[in-house]
Each structure stands twice: as structure tokens, then as C-alpha cells.
Amino acid sequence: MTSDLTRKADSIKLFSLATPQMRAFHLAWLAFFACFFAWFACAPLMPVIKGEFGLTAAQIANINIAAVAITIVVRMIIGPMCDRYGPRKAHTALLIFGSIPVFGVAASQSYESFLFFRMLIGAIGASFVITQYHTSVMFGPRVVGTANAATAGWGNAGGGVTQATMPLILAAILMLGVSETMGWRLALIVPGVLMIVVGALYWKFTQDCPQGNYAELRKAGIELEGGKKGGWESFKLAAANYRVWLLFITYGACFGVELFIHNVAATYYVDQFDMSLKQAGLAAGSFGLLALFARALGGIVSDKMALRGSLNARVTLLFILMLGEGAGLIWFAKADTATVAIFAMLSFGMCVHMACGATYALVPFIDKRALGGVTGIIGAGGNVGAVAAGFLMKGVGSTQQTLSILGFLVLISAACAIALRFSAATNEEHALARAAA
């Protein structure tokens, strides 16, 4: 870690909380973990909720679409808001206010009210954008890919943990003699409480950037990196950059698929292979738990390749990972036994998570003047991909066929990664900045 605490960190001291950079690192992934845990807490309980409300396949599809749709808008807004108000205020507000619909969904008494609160819960998925923004302003070019990927990956693991633990929490509540109708509602209170606790920690122990908080720095007349005007200016700058939209597509093809799998995996294993709710939860949870290391691995490999080569080495890695993801998805769709399906899921899951990490290892180098806008638009691409997959499944009527079609679409979208290639001048500028760090 750099000795000057007012500069971006050029290394990651994983077991330290002594610096603002490392406090932001650990609380960023913890906040995203809490949000991701709450975001998908309903998914592993859907077989129970489905029975209580008598949900049809079309209604379940609507719920899955609602869970990720609103995040598209919120992610695009929250990125520029980080530029304007700082990641500390943005993340704390999202955690505290985002807990309200989590409690609301637990109190739902009908399909309509459940759908409404499930849609509002989707807003907390914007936590990802703040997480990536915060580590991007705290860490230098030598390790920013690793920092972004590790925090996002460990946060994403909340999706795997919730798949595995929510059925266990429900089982523990039922053992106390609580009815199943009340049990799943009580289980959903757990992630809401977790969000409030983490929100309080984030406000108390983090700051916006190595120099301090944006509000105080602006009052002192200190110019922030890239100007950091935020708001509409940040969004316009980002939206004018074609590379932002290429990564919007590639992120939709990797993170969008990840979200889709989180929503359908448990039910797919129950319906396709006659697994019990606990078995399906553990199988589906293993996909999410890959995020503990696979997304970080994508960032680490991207950083290492860039040190030996150029920014285009990061581009090549993303292209290769997306090809692996597409092929693995098709294999998963055609698996005829639970064992083969789980193995195929873990194989393409590695590529999915690593591709997400490789994507956000590129994000800090797209346009430093509008980091929030870039981060938000590309992050929204993941949710667009998930919503598109949801509508695809609703139209096709079969999860298995949807998975197969998605595999081919991912293979096609890999071409966007190659189109990202940077010019020689940009690569030279990046090399000079890396040497000076």
C-alpha cells in the first residue's frame, strides 16, 4: 500500500483496515454482498411462494423480470450520482432505503403486492455500480482490475449464499413450529436487517476517495479527478463513447446470464431433475459461490496480462471468456442428468464470473472524466441482458430451450469484445500512467 494515504493504492493488503482504501475495499464488497443476498433471497423460496399464491408460469416470469428491470434505470442514475455526491452517501442511502421493500415483500398478501415489492427490491442491485466506482477511485492502474473484480465477486457471492442458506433458514424456522406461510416471511426479514447494519457501518467507516469526502473537498476548493461534476454531464460524456455501449452488450451477455441463472436455477433443478428444495438450493448456490474467487480471478488475470502487454490484452481475455461461456451454456442446456448439469453449470459459471471481472477491469480506462456514467451504463447492461433473458423465457416457454438460445447469443456477442480494441496511442498513454503509478 502506498505510504501516502491521499493517493490511490498501488497494492492490496487484504487483511488490513488501517487505510481508507482498504476500508472502502472491504465495506464495498460487504455492502454489495448484503444487497445481493437480499436481492435474490426470494428465488430459492419460490417453490414455496409459488404454492401459497398459486402462481402460474407467466406470473413467475413476470416476477423474475420485475426483480431486475428497475435496476436498469437505477444503475444509470446511481453512477452519475456517485460523481456528484460521492459513493459513501450513495451506498448508505441505497442500503437503508433499499431495506424497506425487502420487509415489504415479506408482508405481501397477494401476487400483485409481491410483484410490486419484488420490483422495488431490484433497485438495490445498483449497489454493484457504487462498489465498482468506489474501488476505481481508491486503487491505481496496477491493481484496479483486481480490486474491482474481487469486491464485485465477493459481493456477488451473496447470490450463492442466499441460494444455499435461505432454505436452511426457512427449515430452522419451521422446526420451531412456525407454519410454512409465516416461515418464508420471517426468513426474508433476515436480509433486510443485514442491509441496515451494513449501511450504518458504511456511513461510519468509509470516505469517498483517498483525499476525503467530495463535499468537504469541493468546499476546500480541491479539484477532483476528472472534474467529477456528476449528474447529467457524467452521463452525457459516457453515453457518447461507443466503447461504453460495446461493454454494455458484453456485460449483458455475462452478468445478465448470471442474474438469469440465479433466478431460475433452483426451480430448474427441481422441475428438470426432481431434486428436493434443499438439494436444488445447494446446487444453484454453488454457481453463485464461484464468485468468491472466479470474478476476482478474471480481474487478476486481466491485470497480469496488461502488465505484460497492453490494454488490448484485457480485451482479448474478455473475448476468450465469452466464447467459453457461450459453449458452456449450450452444454448445460443439453445435460440429461443432474450430475452433468451441475458440472456444466460450474464450467460455464467460471467463464461467466471471470468475464464479469474482465469487463470491469476495462471500465476504469474507458473515460476517466465520467467514471460514474461509464460504470452506471455498463452496469445497467447486465440487467438489460437479464430482462431480455426473462422475456425470452416467457416467449419460449421452456427454461431448457432458453438456456440453449442464450448460449448462441453469447457466442455472437463476443464479437463486441474484439471491437473494443484500443489504438496504439491509447496503449502508450496507459503504459506511461502505469509506470508512473
Q: What does it look like?
A:
- The chain has 437 residues and is mostly helical.
- The protein has one domain: Growth Hormone, Chain: A (Up-down Bundle), CATH 1.20.1250.20.
- The chain is built from 19 helices and no strands.
- The chain has helices spanning 20-39, 46-53, 57-85, 87-106, 111-121, 127-138, 144-175, 180-187, 189-205, 214-219, 231-239, 242-273, 277-289, 294-308, 311-334, 338-362, 371-396, 399-418, 424-436.
- Helix 4 packs antiparallel against helix 6 and helix 17 runs antiparallel to helix 18.
- It is globular, with a radius of gyration of 21 Å.
- The termini are close together.
- The mean pLDDT is 91.
- The chain crosses the membrane at residues 27-49, 55-78, 90-108, 114-133, 154-176, 182-203, 244-270, 282-301, 313-333, 339-363, 370-393, 405-424.
- InterPro entries: MFS, MFS_dom, MFS_trans_sf, NO3_transporter.
- It is a multi-pass membrane protein.
- It is found in: Membrane.
Number of separate structural domains: 1
Q: In CATH, what is the class?
A: Mainly Alpha
How much of the sequence is in beta strands? under 5%
Mean pLDDT: 91
**Shape assignment:** globular
Number of strands: 0
Indicate the CATH topology: Growth Hormone, Chain: A
Quaternary organisation of the protein chains? single chain
Count of discrete alpha- or pi-helical segments spanning 4 or more residues: 19
- Category from helices, strands and their pairing: mainly alpha
Unreliable residue stretches? none
CATH superfamily: MFS general substrate transporter like domains
In CATH, the architecture is: Up-down Bundle
Question: What summary fits the major beta sheet?
Answer: none
First-to-last CA distance: 12 Å
